C-alpha cells in the first residue's frame, strides 16, 4: 500500500526546481579552484538574479529552444524552465548549454535532470544538450557551418549572465570573432544570429 501522506509532504519537481539548483550552485562554488575563479569569470548566478533575468521574457509559449552560454550549474535555464511551466504554455523545451568546468558540468547535468522531471510532470517534452566546449569558438563554428549550407542548431531564447572579462585584442577568442565579422564584442550578435 502507498503512503499518500509521505507523497503530500514532498514538493513536486517544479516547486523545488529553482531552490534545488541554487543549492547545486552553492555546493559547486565550494569545489571550484578559488585562485582561478576570477580569471575564468566563474561567478555563479544566484536564484534571485536568475529569476529576474527569466522574468524579462514576454513569451515562453510553444516550442522553447534555450541557449545558455557559460551555464555554470544551470541556474538560468532552470529559472526559465520554472517560469515557462508555471506562467506560459510551452509545448516543448530544449535546454542547450555551454560549460567547460567539469565540476559545473556535473551540476548542470543534475539541474537538467530536474528540468526534465519538472517538464514531464507538466506534460511538456524536454530535450537537452550540454556542450563542454568554449562557447565563442563553437558559435563561430556554427556561423561558418550556416554560411556553408550545413544544418545547425537554432534557438529562439537566450539567457545568460556573461562573465565580465575583457577579451584582449591578441586572444584566440577575439581572432575567432573577427573571422566572422565580430570585431566589436557584442554577445547578442552571436546569440541571436539567424542565417
UniProtKB/TrEMBL annotation:
InterPro entries: SAM-dependent_MTases_sf
Gene3D superfamilies according to UniProt: Vaccinia Virus protein VP39
SUPFAM superfamilies recorded: S-adenosyl-L-methionine-dependent methyltransferases
Name by which UniProt lists this protein: Uncharacterized protein
Organism encoding this protein: Pseudidiomarina woesei
The organism's taxonomic lineage, starting at the top: Bacteria, Pseudomonadati, Pseudomonadota, Gammaproteobacteria, Alteromonadales
Amino acid at each position: 500500500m502507498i503512503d499518500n501522506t509521505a507523497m503530500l509532504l514532498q514538493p513536486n519537481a517544479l516547486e523545488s526546481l529553482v531552490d534545488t539548483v541554487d543549492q547545486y550552485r552553492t555546493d559547486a562554488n565550494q569545489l571550484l579552484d578559488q585562485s582561478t575563479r576570477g580569471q575564468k569569470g566563474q561567478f555563479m548566478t544566484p536564484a534571485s538574479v536568475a529569476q529576474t533575468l527569466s522574468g524579462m521574457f514576454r513569451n515562453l509559449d510553444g516550442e522553447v529552444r534555450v541557449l545558455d552560454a557559460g551555464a555554470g550549474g544551470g541556474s538560468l535555464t532552470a529559472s526559465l524552465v520554472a517560469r515557462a511551466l508555471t506562467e506560459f504554455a510551452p509545448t516543448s523545451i530544449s535546454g542547450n548549454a555551454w560549460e567547460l568546468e567539469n565540476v559545473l558540468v556535473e551540476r548542470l547535468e543534475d539541474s537538467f535532470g530536474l528540468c526534465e522531471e519538472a517538464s514531464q510532470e507538466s506534460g511538456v517534452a524536454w530535450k537537452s544538450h550540454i556542450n563542454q566546449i568554449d562557447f565563442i569558438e563553437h558559435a563561430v563554428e556554427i556561423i561558418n557551418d550556416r554560411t556553408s549550407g550545413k544544418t545547425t542548431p537554432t534557438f529562439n531564447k537566450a539567457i545568460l549572465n556573461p562573465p565580465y572579462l575583457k577579451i584582449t585584442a591578441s586572444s584566440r577568442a577575439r581572432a575567432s570573432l573577427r573571422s566572422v565579422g565580430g570585431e566589436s564584442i557584442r554577445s547578442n550578435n552571436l546569440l541571436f544570429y539567424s542565417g
